[in-house]
Design a protein that fits this description.
By secondary structure, the chain is mainly β. It has a single domain, classed as monomeric porin ompg (Porin, Beta Barrel). The chain contains 3 helices and 16 strands. A hairpin with a 3-residue loop joins strand 14 and strand 15. It is globular.
Length: about 290
């Protein structure tokens, strides 16, 4: 009877206080960092910077190495360079602008992270869309009858996965469109386009971490569309990358001298099987305004 009395009048808050000491830790799934750079060689990656981050990129391609000592393996040969800026105004969306020496291109671009690979549960891959509009700003030529003839477009869907702590891979189908293409006159006097206006391609790229800040990188672009003439060559690239909190630096060899992606896929005539490679580098500087 005494025991029952004691139980009934024991303060419940004492028992509840004991239970409150036992906290359950729940680890929420977090996005996986698949790539540390916005692009690898000539292709964008699924990586999108955090909100209020500004990126400046310098992308440079020297001349072809098969000229040998004549121009120091392309170092002093004709070069191509692009200067670009991107900014992340809201989560998962990056917008940017760039200017390129080749054809005096001005491009406006955007990238949006649709889904992200999570460290536990959720999506097993990251999916990001990238698109741009490029304008050929050279002086008026014979092919530029209307202002719209200067415009080209690029659309790409990137699917990537971090397979292990060291290895990340990505596959990306793409569509390039040129409002105007070069034409030729056949033996009957008919004017025919040399290439189709639309060009499908698929790219594969990967990164392997040798150390936390030092990586091997590779990129391959395979054209899919068959044109009447001037079918583009595949683009094969390989190199190294080093990163810090605010910088990324890549140096590589590849067989495309273009930088804007639709030009890489549409105009590349350098054949890697003939050793028509060139040396290039990409430098990215980041500023975080959070």
């Amino acid at each position: 009877m005494l025991c029952l009395f004691s139980f009934c009048f024991t303060p419940w808050n004492g028992l509840m206080a004991q239970d409150s000491l036992e906290t359950v830790t729940v680890n929420k799934p977090r996005p996986v960092t698949i790539f540390e750079s916005q692009f690898i060689v000539d292709n964008q990656t699924v990586a999108v910077s955090r909100k209020k981050v500004l990126n400046m990129a310098i992308q440079h391609r020297f001349g072809k190495v098969n000229n040998g000592k004549k121009d120091l393996f392309g170092i002093f040969g004709p070069a191509n360079i692009r200067l670009g800026m991107t900014y992340t105004p809201i989560d998962n969306l990056t917008v940017g602008i760039g200017v390129t020496k080749e054809r005096f291109l001005v491009d406006f671009n955007g990238k949006y992270a649709i889904v992200k690979q999570m460290d536990s549960g959720g999506w097993p891959v990251s999916i990001t869309y990238f698109g741009n509009i490029a304008i050929d700003s050279r002086e008026k030529k014979g092919n530029f009858v209307q202002s719209g003839d200067r415009i080209s477009y690029f659309n790409q869907l990137m699917i990537a996965r971090k397979i292990t702590e060291k290895l990340s891979v990505q596959v990306s189908p793409s569509l390039s469109h040129f409002n105007n293409v070069e034409a030729y006159r056949d033996k009957d006097g008919n004017i025919l386009p040399k290439m189709k206006n639309d060009h499908f391609a698929i790219s594969f790229l990967g990164m392997y971490k040798l150390t936390e800040r030092f990586h091997l990188i590779a990129n391959y672009d395979q054209p899919l569309t068959q044109h009447t003439t001037n079918n583009p060559q595949p683009n094969v690239c390989f190199g190294i990358e080093t990163t810090t909190v605010s910088h990324s630096f890549q140096v590589f060899a590849g067989n495309s001298g273009s930088i804007v992606p639709q030009n890489v896929n549409f105009y590349n005539q350098n054949d890697y099987r003939k050793g028509q490679f060139l040396i290039g580098f990409n430098i990215t500087r980041r500023w975080n305004f959070n």
